[in-house]
Amino acid sequence: MHSDKVKLLRDSYPFIADDLAIDCGDGWFDILKALCDNLMKIRQPVRSYIKLSLIKQKQGILCIYYSTKEYLVDEIADFINGAINITVEASKTVCEKCGQRGELKKV
Ligand SMILES: [Zn+2]
From the CA of 101, how far away is ligand 1's center (Å)? Predict the structure, then answer.
């Protein structure tokens, strides 16, 4: 992802550490932003424990992991996993390059 877009996400959301590379195309900016907006619903101080630890394209699909520095109750962990799943599913129908509607193709 273009460094300007990564900076925009990094400046807007606490989940993206300075050293996290976002290894996917610009077309997925909007769905990553939607994920971060969703995660902003988590109350403090819990929100501050959560960092996205890996964001990359793998076999045409977004691959996202997160880490937490404190134990999360099931309700919060389920919420985060659900939000990530929605994002991963969305990546199957959105073109990684241009952000238009797309489909997963085997190449
Ligand atoms: Zn496209």
Answer: 7
Residue range of the domain that includes 15: 3-91
Beta-strand ranges (E) seen in the chain are 22-23, 50-58, 61-68
CA of 13 to the centre of ligand 1 (A): 26
pLDDT (tens digit per residue) in 20-55: 999 999 999 999 999 999 999 999 999 999 999 999
Domain count within the chain? 1
CA distance 101 to 44: 35
Instruction: State the pTM of this model.
Output: 0.94
Distance 3 CA to ligand 1 centre (A): 19
